[in-house]
Amino acid sequence: MYASSAVRARLGNVVARRGFSTTRTQLGSPYHYAEGPRSNIPFNPLTKHFFWRYWAFMVTGFGAPFAIAVWQTYKTK
Fold first, then answer.
1. Distance between CA atoms of residues 8 and 2, nearest Å
2. What is the pLDDT of residue 18?
3. With contact defined as beta carbons under 8 Å apart, do 67 and 61 qualify?
4. Using CA atoms, how far apart are residues 27 and 50, in angstroms rounded to an integer?
5. Distance between CA atoms of 61 and 42, rounded to whole angstroms?
6. pLDDT, tens digit, for every residue of 7-62?
7. Minimal CA–CA distance to 41: which of 33, 76, 62?
């Protein structure tokens, strides 16, 4: 009785253990993109004109809805 429960317990640990593994991303695939810092923005922050490009990007994205709302308000019917 003790031997069978010991074997069952030992096999249970082996079966219950999951084999997690990681693989290297395949950069040739169209579904895998470069990862890491500064890879998800549309400009290179290490350039000389980063400050101006950043603020142009932010002003355009945040200001466009307000500019469109003002334009729609003053538009003639």
1. 10
2. 61
3. no
4. 27
5. 13
6. 666 655 555 556 666 666 555 666 666 778 878 877 788 889 889 988 998 999 99
7. 33
Give pTM, 2 decimals.
0.41
Token couple for 35:
């990862």
25 near 36, Cβ under 8 Å?
A: no
Token pair of 57 as six digits = 């990007």
Contact between 27 and 34 (Cβ < 8 Å)? yes
Contacts of 34 (CB under 8 A, 6+ apart): 27
- C-alpha 20/C-alpha 71 separation (Å) is 56
